[in-house]
């Protein structure tokens, strides 16, 4: 399904021009208009899924394989020192466009970007309880 009001559906469908890196029946890979680093790309499914909770598992499997191919092409052509693969779900997690997408961000030594979180300490007993609770909910 395509959401006619979704900007990423319009881009993925070719209705809005983009710097397309790759395209097939399921996905369009394009360069981000506000890149974190040189070569920062987005993988957009052509079908609309708001987030990871909605996306079809078969599409998700194909997407991660494509992400590896894009990351490998970046390493080969851009000579980057590493790659971040980032995917946000929900406003609290930094998602700003509610069409599932994955960022492939080439990283260069001393590029000035920070992608991560501030580590906290954890209580082993709480960790064990959380592991059991989450594990029981996995289907």
UniProtKB/TrEMBL annotation:
Record GO biological process: methylation
HIT domain: residues covered: 7-114
UniProt KW rRNA processing keyword: no
Motif Histidine triad motif boundaries: 99-103
The entry's keywords: Methyltransferase, Transferase
This enzyme's EC code(s): 2.1.1.-
InterPro entries, A to Z: HINT (IPR039384), Histidine_triad_CS (IPR019808), Histidine_triad_HIT (IPR001310), HIT-like (IPR011146), HIT-like_sf (IPR036265)
Coiled coil: none
UniProt-listed Pfam families: HIT
Entry keyword annotation includes Methyltransferase: yes
GO molecular function: methyltransferase activity
Protein name: HIT family protein
